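Handout, page 2. Input:
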Amino acid sequence: MATNELTAGQVLRSTPVGISWTAPEKSRAWQNPPKYTKLSDVANNYISMLSSKNMANSVLDAVETKAPLASLAETIMLAGVLKGAHTLDTGILVMPIIIEMLKTVAMMHDIKTVTYSEEYDDMRSIPTRAVKMALASNMEMPTEEMSSPVEELKTGLMQRKTKMGI
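Output:
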């Protein structure tokens, strides 16, 4: 009697169940070998990316919201995994470097940071940049006064309408 048992090598090389329903095999970046395999290459990639002028503005916007740096670093790292730049395990190992780069960018611009979510829970203030942005958007909105007063309803919402003059 023949059995349909797979060997260990076939199981490891096979495509996960259901993946063929959404996309062809090997069409996603995370299904292919990563671009960087050495930890030093991954770290250098993030250092150069976070120190570029284009990324600095985005980093400053995120840091000024007082979002925990660990959460931001995790998001940046997972984006690298999604793009196929490195594996998840090398990303986890490089997260302290990403956090330090975020701290450095914030220190250069005199921005107070929150590293972990426990510190974030203790804070109860609104960032000054968010207040300034809210005030600026409120000042730009035109304020129109209503030209006619609101007429009060003399009947209930479900009441039948009566004929005028009767």
